[in-house]
Amino acid sequence: MVLVRLLLFLGLAVILSAFAAFLITKDRRYLRFIAKTLIFSIAFFIGLMLFYSGSLIQIDI
User: Fold this and answer.
1) By the 8 A CB rule, do 34 and 17 touch?
2) Spatial distance between the Cα atoms of 6 and 25, rounded to a whole number of angstroms
3) How far apart are CA 46 and CA 33, in angstroms?
């Protein structure tokens, strides 16, 4: 759980620093980087939640 919080914090730090770089330079590639980072982060955390919920549900066959 600590690793998940660390990854969440690092992702937020990357997004905020890229947004700050966009505000300073007005270069649109930072907005594309933010969008790609958000999409990857959301997909990663959805996959992580599915894996965690699957490990909680144990089906005996």
Assistant:
1) no
2) 28
3) 20
